[in-house]
Amino acid sequence: MVKELEVKLTGVAHGGEALGKVGKRVIFVAYALPGETVRVELVEEHNRWLRGKLLEVIEASPDRTEPFCPHFGPEHCGGCQWQHIKRKAQLDYKRRIVRDQLQRVGRLNKAIVRPTVNLVPERSYRTQMMFLPSSGESLGLRQPDSYDVHPIDHCPILHPTLAGLYEDFNVAWDGLRSVDLSAGLSSEQRLVALRTHRNQVPEIEVDIPVSIVLEKNNGEIVPLIGDPWFFETIAGHDYRFTAGTRRPTHPAAQQAIVEVVADYVRPGPGQVMMDVYCGNGLFTLGFAGRLSLVIGIDEDAIAMEDCAFNCSHLDNVMLHEGPPPKVLRKLQDPIELAVVSPPAEGMGHRVAQNLARMGGRRLAYVAHNPATLARDLPELQRAGYAFQEATPIDVAPQTYYVATVALFTR
User: What is the pLDDT of residue 136?
Assistant: First the structure.
């Protein structure tokens, strides 16, 4: 087989690679763009698809731009995949990825996908990121498609508050597994979560205002310095986020999700909403002031503690801790609205059917991976929910990651 070949690329794949055709097989090429003609080296071959390593861009796309980080690229840092693509094109590609997943995996015909919502700055935006120890005495991020860690001296997509924290903690030692950094922009609080081999407790002295915790292998959070959480304001509401729970990459990203969900479910007086996989209470707290009752369900005990704290001043919030599929089987509360924010593995058995049984008419599905949404479409359809439209949200510029909010009605 020819090891090098010239390929015209025509599309973009869910994993962020550009794609084209070699005969009847699809070829995937990282760090390339749709519309480009490239020379590649074949590095992977299968019956239906190939993977090529980019050697040369013969004809460049007008959407190509110069990366702004010296660590970007193959065999360097894999934290970003799209710094070589102009921001406007990134937004269009994320819309294409969502539409492709809905139509190809979800089997929808001509799915309506709105333009990608963009409220997050294109750089200096991340308020949460996890780093790994490199082979030296510094931290870094994994190389693309590798377990090797590329050392990072400075990361230009970090918000300045987090960048300063990274400079203070950019050191590795024997026994360290990871360092997870978070910052609350509104509160100016900073949180460091450490994971170590065999849950070893490190000796740490700091002379800066920061909270530090040890995150054990079983998920237990052990405070070492200060409180194990920070506070952030999102869409006008104050939230507590504890280490080990899902935290925002930037508060504007969560605000965009809240706004799209509100537009889809239309919360109003006299209505009851079920918030499935409610986590820290982004929608439970965010919509409680507009509804008669919000019922939140999640099996993450730490996140539910945050949700209870965040909603402690409200008397129209009811929380159930446990696996949502099991909890929903037992509930009889009549509802009009539902929000589902499942993990990567999807909603779980009969979640959609039970929401329909309880009377849910409008359902907003919040996917942190469009493939999860596409795989759950059959269950939603079996429960009588009809897909109306979806809105991608750019929660992580310079990467292919995209959140998606989809509206279903019955």
Answer: 77
Dihedral sign for Cα atoms in the order 195, 201, 202, 208: positive
Question: Which residues, 6+ apart, have CB-to-CB distance to 124 below 8 Å?
Answer: 156, 157, 158, 159, 160, 163
Give the model's pLDDT for residue 2: 66
d(CA 106, CA 390) in angstroms, rounded, equals 13
Can you give the pLDDT at residue 281? 98
Domains of the chain: 1-64 (2.40.50.140), 96-119+249-409 (3.40.50.150), 128-232 (2.40.50.1070)
Length of the chain in residues, anyone? Answer: 410
Q: Print burial letters for 380-409: b (CB count within 10 Å at least 16), e (below 16).
A: bbebebebeebbbbbbbbbbbbbbbbbbbe
Across the beta sheet with 176-184, the strand order is: 149-151, 139-142, 128-133, 176-184, 189-196, 211-215, 221-225
DSSP state of 91: H
The predicted pLDDT at position 1 comes to 56
Distance CA(16)–CA(401), nearest Å, equals: 8
Residue 192: φ, ψ to 5°: -120, 125
Residue matched to tokens 């731009």: 65
Q: How far apart are CA 210 and CA 194, in angstroms?
A: 13
The gap from C-alpha 72 to its chain's centroid, in whole angstroms, comes to: 20
Task: With CA atoms as reference, report the closest residue to 370 among 352, 390, 351.
Answer: 390
What pLDDT score does 137 carry? 85
The per-residue pLDDT for 111 is: 95
Task: Kindly report, residue by residue over 209-246, the tens digit of the pLDDT.
Answer: 999 999 999 999 999 999 999 999 999 999 999 999 99
Which residues in the chain land under pLDDT 70? 1-2
Helix ranges (DSSP H) in 340-369: 351-357
Q: What DSSP character marks residue 326?
A: H
- 322 CB burial (10 A radius; 0-12, 13-18, 19+): middle
Q: 235: left (phi > 0), else alpha (psi -120 to 50), else beta?
A: left
